[in-house]
Amino acid sequence: MSTLQLDRHGWLRPSAGVALAPSPNHDERPPGQDATLLVMHNISLPPGRFGGTEVIDLFLNRLDYDSHPWLPRLRGLRVSAHFLVRRDGRIVQFVATDLRAWHTGVSSFQGRERCNDFSIGIEMEGTDTLPYTHEQYGAARRLTAALRARHPLNAVRGHEHIAPGRKTDPGPAFDWARYGREGGWLRRQLPPVP
């Protein structure tokens, strides 16, 4: 697999397995703020279904809410993440990393509120309990290397760690030890061992 690189605005350079789908759901980071936190999520729409266009459509505000009985509860939601890593390892980018994606909601990390201000969000296509794929871990490793080369990321957490009680992702199925080892993170940069 080729090495991933971000351009000067924080978009991945076109390469095999990378698609750009700019989302309107973003805004500017606060002045002088760069991303220091990486947040891992999971998503599947409808829950437990993979490979469709629903996640992309949600982030692009074009989701057909009537296509499945579960989807109407998302009506009016305006959210995004910087990246989606599909089950086969393909990556979709929605927001430039220099901009603020809307992925954390009410959140806190090390006493700082509003984690969207200083984080980058990666959505892994999956659920809390279904193992993630080898291809996803490989894509996450490559993406993490590109992000760490461009931004001063010094910690990674799951959505569950920055919004406890409200969020549960990426869940117990996410192999933090594997991701940490492959991503070159120090133990202190990863979530505490339960």
TrEMBL record:
Pfam entry (one)? Amidase_2
**Swiss-Prot/TrEMBL keywords:** Cell wall biogenesis/degradation, Cytoplasm, Hydrolase, Metal-binding, Zinc
Q: Which reaction does it catalyse?
A: Hydrolyzes the link between N-acetylmuramoyl residues and L-amino acid residues in certain cell-wall glycopeptides
Phosphoprotein as a keyword of this entry, yes or no, is no
> MF terms per GO, please?
metal ion binding; N-acetylmuramoyl-L-alanine amidase activity
Cofactor dependence is on: Zn(2+)
Biological process annotations from GO: cell wall organization; peptidoglycan catabolic process; peptidoglycan turnover
Location within or outside the cell: Cytoplasm
What's the source species for this entry? Parapusillimonas granuli
The family note in this entry says: Belongs to the N-acetylmuramoyl-L-alanine amidase 2 family.
Q: Which residues form the N-acetylmuramoyl-L-alanine amidase domain?
A: 23-171
**Cross-referenced InterPro entries, in alphabetical order?**
Amidase/PGRP_sf (IPR036505), Amidase_domain (IPR002502), NAMLAA_amidase_2 (IPR051206)
From what superkingdom does this record's organism come? Bacteria
Which GO cellular component does the record give, naming just one?
A: cytoplasm
EC assignment = 3.5.1.28
Q: What is the lineage of its organism?
A: Bacteria, Pseudomonadati, Pseudomonadota, Betaproteobacteria, Burkholderiales
- This one is known as 1,6-anhydro-N-acetylmuramyl-L-alanine amidase AmpD
- The yes or no answer to whether the keyword NADP is present is no
